[in-house]
């Protein structure tokens, strides 16, 4: 392979929270591989959510949970987890501010309580079954957490949260809370370290601020038309009305090959 292309899912390969791709995406992935471009999924989603989609796209290389879990060339090269004291520090912040927290690993998830904010977020993401278990972390590994809150409240809690974890917004009512120094960008760096000495040109496609770390690391970052202003500002390629989840797919092959 001469090039690596990292693709976000929600809002990039997939419309909304559907995790559905059109046939032209499958064909594009096949065409890219034929032309020595290796497509790699880079998403905030976990394995239990995307395993069927990964099989459909015939890709065994992926960055999941915003960099917590990384598989490349048949090997797990990262599986970052929170310690229980770290989780409890986040839970204290959540409880003090009457926020719902979520626990996530590669097999499943649970939340501390089913609030109205969580219901609205679940509808936005297309999630129908939301398990509640405040003690999930006591018996299960936790790659990352969620807190469910609007941007205004996040801003007030940013310094307190940053003292114990890294945070990134991925939806209007939810942020990912990640172990320190874990992101899509640091995951890409670990992946590239595993093939050190190989000359590879790198590309990333995304739409939200959790894709910023990718854009800061790859040679070329391409933002979707509906991407955030901050992401568009960091993109190395201009965006226009053609770069949306539907139209972009028809352009990827010509752009990358």
Q: Would you give an account of this structure?
A:
With 257 residues, the chain is of the alpha/beta class. The protein has two domains: 3-79 and 182-256, HAD superfamily/HAD-like (Rossmann fold); 84-178, Hypothetical Protein, Haloacid Dehalogenase-like Hydrolase, Chain: A, domain 2 (2-Layer Sandwich), CATH 3.30.1240.10. Helix content is 36%, strand content 21%. It is built from ten helices and twelve strands. It has helices at residues 23-34, 47-57, 84-96, 116-125, 136-139, 151-162, 184-193, 212-215, 229-234, 247-256; strands at 3-7, 37-42, 62-64, 69-72, 75-79, 101-104, 109-111, 144-147, 166-171, 174-178, 201-206, 220-223. The chain has a seven-stranded mixed β-sheet with strand order 5-4-3-2-1-11-12, with helices on both faces. A five-stranded antiparallel β-sheet has the order 7-6-8-10-9. α2 links the parallel β2 and β3.
Name the CATH class of the largest domain: Alpha Beta
- Oligomeric status: single chain
Classification by helices and strands: alpha/beta
Remind me, CATH topology of the largest domain?
A: Rossmann fold
Total domain units: 2
- Largest sheet strand order: 5-4-3-2-1-11-12
Number of helices: 10
What's the story with the biggest beta sheet? 7 strands, mixed
H and E order: EHEHEEEHEEHHEHEEHEHEHH
Distance between the termini: 11 Å
Using only CA atoms, what is the Rg? 18 Å
Gross morphology is globular
List low-pLDDT spans.
241-247
Helicity level, as a percent range?
25-40%
CATH architecture of the largest domain: 3-Layer(aba) Sandwich
The average pLDDT is 90
CATH-defined superfamily of the largest domain: HAD superfamily/HAD-like
- Provide the β-strand percentage band: 15-25%
Number of strands: 12
């Amino acid at each position: 392979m001469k090039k690596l292309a990292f693709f976000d899912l929600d809002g990039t390969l997939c419309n909304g929270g559907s995790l559905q791709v059109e046939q032209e995406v499958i064909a594009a992935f096949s065409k890219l591989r034929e032309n020595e471009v290796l497509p790699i999924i880079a998403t905030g989603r976990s394995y239990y959510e995307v395993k069927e989609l990964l099989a459909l796209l015939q890709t065994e290389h992926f960055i999941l949970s915003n960099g917590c879990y990384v598989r490349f060339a048949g090997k797990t090269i990262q599986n970052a987890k929170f310690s229980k004291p770290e989780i409890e520090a986040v839970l204290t912040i959540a409880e003090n501010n009457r926020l719902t927290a979520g626990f996530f690993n590669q097999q499943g998830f649970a939340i501390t309580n089913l609030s109205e904010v969580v219901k609205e977020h679940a509808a936005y993401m297309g999630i129908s079954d939301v398990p509640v278990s405040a003690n999930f972390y006591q018996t299960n590994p936790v790659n990352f957490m969620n807190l469910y809150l609007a941007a205004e409240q996040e801003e007030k809690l940013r310094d307190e949260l940053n003292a114990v974890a890294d945070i990134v917004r991925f939806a209007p009512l939810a942020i990912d809370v990640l172990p320190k120094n874990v992101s899509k960008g640091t995951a890409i760096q670990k992946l590239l370290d595993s093939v050190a000495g190989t000359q590879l040109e790198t590309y990333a496609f995304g739409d939200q601020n959790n894709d910023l770390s990718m854009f800061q690391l790859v040679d070329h970052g391409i933002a979707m038309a509906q991407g955030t202003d901050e992401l568009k500002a960091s993109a190395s390629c201009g965006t226009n009305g053609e770069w949306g989840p539907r139209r972009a797919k028809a352009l990827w092959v010509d752009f990358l090959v």
